[in-house]
Amino acid sequence: MYADTKIAIPIFKKKKEDILRLASDYIDKGVDILELRIDAMNNPKPNEVKSIIENIGFPTIATNRIKTEGGHFNGSEDERIAILEKCGEVCEYVDVELATNRKLIDSIVETGVKTIISYHDFNKTPNIDDMLDIVKKEMKIGDIAKIAVMPQSLEDTINILAILSRCKNTIAISMGDMGSYTRVIASKFNAPITFAASDDVTAPGQIDFETMKQVMNLDLMNTEDLFADGY
Question: Measuring CA to CA, which residue among 29, 50, 38, 68 is closest to residue 196?
Answer without folding.
Answer: 29
